[in-house]
Amino acid sequence: MGLLSVLRLLVVFWSDLWSRALGSSCVRRGYHLWIAAVVIFGPLLQYYVNPRTIFANHRNFFNIKFVQSAWGWTCLFVGGFILPVAYCASGSILLTLRHLSRLAVGAAIWFLSGQLFILIENVTGSCYQPVPDGLLLLGHLQDKSSCVREGHRWHGYDVSGHAFMLTYCCLTLSEEMAVFHRYLTARGAEAGVPMRLIFLLNTTLLALWNFMLFCTVIYFHEYSHKIVGAALGTLCWHLTYRYWYRSHWSPGRPGHGLFLKFPEKQKPN
C-alpha cells in the first residue's frame, strides 16, 4: 500500500470519526457543558500554571495572529466548508448563498458586540493618573480615548471580547460542522478527499479555539469579565441558532433544505 493510499485512509477515518461525534446532538450538548466548565473553573488553574509561559504574554503569536482575528478565521474556514457542502447537496446557488448569509449575521454580531463593549467600558469607567502614592482621579477626561491619548489610565468594566468571540466561534463551528455527518449519510459515505480535508481543517480550527479559550480564561482578564463575555457569546449563539434560524424569515439552520434530493435509505426489516 502506497503512502498516498495510507494518507487517504487516515483522512477518511478521522473525518468519519469527527463527523459522527459532531453530528451527535448529545455530544454537542456535552460540548456546551465543556465550554461552561472551562470558563467557570478554568481560572482556578492560574495558581498552578507557569506564569512565564509564552501563552501568558498577550503579545504571543497565536493571540496576535489568530485570536484577535477570530471571527475572520472562522468566517474563512466555515465559509470554505459551507460553500461546497451546500452546493453539492442542493445544486442551488441561491440556497447556498442563503446558508452563507449566516456568516454575515456573525460578522454583524462581532461588530456590534465590539461597539457595545467599548460603550460599557466608557460608561462605567473613569480616568486616573498614576502618582507615587497610587492613582489620582481625573474628572475632566470623560472617555477612554482622550484619557489614553493623554498618557493616563482608564479603569472601567472591560467585558472580555476574547472570551465572547472565542465562545461564539466554538459554538458556531460545532453547529455548522455537524452537517457533514448528514452529508455523508445522504450520499452513502461518498465524499472526496478535498471535502474531507476542508472538514478536518475546521476541526483543527475548533481545537485551536478551544485551546486559546483555555489560555484566555487562565491568563487574561478579571473573572467576572470572562464570565460575562462567555455568557454573552453563548446568548448570541442561542438567539441565532436556537431561535432565529428556526424561523422562515431567517438564513435557516445548518443543513436546512440541503438533503431533500437524497431520500433516506430504507432500513432493512
TrEMBL record:
User: Signal peptide location in the record?
Assistant: 1-23
Give the residues annotated as active site.
162, 221
Lineage: superkingdom: Eukaryota
Q: Where is this site: Important for catalytic activity?
A: 225
What GO biological process terms does the UniProt entry carry, in alphabetical order?
Answer: lipid droplet formation; phospholipid biosynthetic process
Molecular functions (GO terms): coenzyme A diphosphatase activity
Provide the protein's localization.
Endoplasmic reticulum membrane
Q: Where are the membrane-spanning stretches?
A: 33-49, 70-94, 100-120, 197-221
Which keywords fit this entry according to its UniProt record?
A: Endoplasmic reticulum, Membrane, Signal, Transmembrane, Transmembrane helix
Q: Which Pfam families match?
A: FIT
Q: Which GO terms describe its cellular component?
A: endoplasmic reticulum membrane
Q: Which PANTHER family match?
A: ACYL-COENZYME A DIPHOSPHATASE FITM2, FAT STORAGE-INDUCING TRANSMEMBRANE PROTEIN 1
> What is this protein's function?
Plays an important role in the formation of lipid droplets (LDs), which are storage organelles at the center of lipid and energy homeostasis. May directly bind to diacylglycerol (DAGs) and triacylglycerol.
Protein name, as recorded: Fat storage-inducing transmembrane protein 1
User: What is the originating organism of this protein?
Assistant: Pleurodeles waltl (Iberian ribbed newt)
Give the source lineage, highest ranks first.
Answer: Eukaryota, Metazoa, Chordata, Craniata, Vertebrata
User: Encoded by which gene?
Assistant: FITM1
